[in-house]
Fold Large ribosomal subunit protein uL24.
Amino acid sequence: MIKKGDNVIMLTGTDKGKKGKVLKAMPSENKVVVEGVNQKNKRQKPRKQGEKGQLIKITHPVNVSNVGLFCGSCGKGVRAKVKMIKDKKTRVCAKCGKEL
């Protein structure tokens, strides 16, 4: 399960291999917004007289299946397991066992 604030890596798409932080999670739609990934250009018209139009980069949501949790010790995208550590559920890497 991917939550807001997690470090993730892109597994597929044009941004494959890019790492970023999850800015927003939308579990009902199975999508996440990742910092610096899947950016699109939007043209903005000038609103006031004398102002110039500009291009704005907007990050769009990505399907959860296209990202993986990034484990710093493994150095790649991994699945997470839930372990009880001191009466608290924590997510750990499925490969090396380190805390995520």
